[in-house]
Amino acid sequence: MRLSGRGVACVRGGREVFSGLDFEAISGEAVAVVGRNGAGKTSLLRLIAGLLVPAGGTIALDGGDTELTLPEQCHYLGHRDALKPALSVAENLSFWADFLGGERRDATESLATVGLDHATHLPAGFLSAGQRRRLSLARLLTVRRPVWLLDEPTNALDVAGQDMFGGLMREHLGRGGMIIAATHGPLGIEARELRIGGTA
Ligand SMILES: Nc1ncnc2c1ncn2[C@@H]1O[C@H](COP(=O)(O)OP(=O)(O)OP(=O)(O)O)[C@@H](O)[C@H]1O
What we know:
28% helix, three-stranded antiparallel beta sheet, binds adenosine-5'-triphosphate, five-stranded parallel beta sheet
């Protein structure tokens, strides 16, 4: 599987953020998108996820499921955790599994893996920042998708959480998945750097 972008341009609010961007990721590979604040790291992830339309160029996935679009083969985890505070931990995960569709894995097991098995009935609004992030990560495990698009994924995770997440990323890559992560710090796994917008 190969994800590639050729001559990709991004315009937001009428202003060009970047243009002529080429990038590539293959199965089993992690790419760390780096660059200064406002360089367009989040925008690039949103372009790949189909949440923004490129102003130029093309983005394509070769060797994936031909019956599915690229966005349907991506998990997009934004830097804010998309959770409903009044729903419980288990209900939030169930919502995401329904929304994403496809084959669903055991949610209880996913919550145990991210260390939230003691909190399944707690409203998500009561979770700490790191626990909210862990709940978002459980989505990646409950519904399998080959392309993980992660925006500042280690934010708010403690050292044990970062280790746990490093293990999950390695497993995903070992299964032939790929990871594109926007980050200002170390991702915790070996990753090829994609710098956008010049030196930070
Ligand atoms: N909805 C929007 N309308 C107009 N401009 C936007 C919008 N969203 C983002 N931008 C602009 O697009 C540019 C790129 O933003 P983006 O969030 O992709 O940068 P980033 O590299 O992820 O930044 P950071 O490191 O601060 O997270 C910024 O100048 C931002 O102000």
